[in-house]
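Hi P.,

Sorry for the delay on this. The queue was packed all week, but I finally got your sequence through. Input first:
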Amino acid sequence: MDYFEKTELEVTQKPPLPPHKASKQTWVSRLSILWLLILWQVSQNAVIIPMNKHGQFSLWKIGLFLIIFVICVILSYQWARKYHLIPAIQWRYFQFGKIAMGFGLMFAVALISGLIMQLTGTKSTANQAVVDAIGKMLPPVIFFIMTTSAGFFEELIFRVSSFELIFNKWPKIAALFAWGLFTLAHNPTNIASFVTYGLMSLVLTGLYIKYRNFYLNMSVHFLWNAFGMIVFFLAK
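Then the structure:
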């Protein structure tokens, strides 16, 4: 029996990963989402610290941004764990096959969105134009962190909070809310941009409905945004 046969046998013998189930929520825990929203905004607006239109950046400003960002991530994770919204981070939640499948679905809907943009004569979305403009004013490492961190914060806000916190008793409402909030948060200004972010939200929300795995959603979202960053830097 070779290595691959042994690996396949071990995988088939392992019990399936159980979906995470959050505990019962109260009005206090539901209102605590305001704390998460504050942390998210602080982490996003902290990019102003090292931003410089002249292309000159101080190392201490970059360091200050990184410190603030890491603190916001740690506090957000602790918040989610305090209310039992996500399980403790473990490698077993990063299921590479499902992550690859999710990335493939994101790529597929991107092709559909691109076709619709061509048919409607749309060059880009308003949200992407803003992101690109910010990217030209930031050091690459800061821009990369700012963009890819959406995989952490947005999945906590749009998916986890909807299903496990706010509408934990109403999964259908949670699904509709998660899909719509993510779509509208990306400021669709026309049919093409609405379809673009609506399809992305459909994939990410569908993944969470099926697997109820924050780390899976976070990984897919992170990889997709990282792919976008690679395209951005190659096009410069």
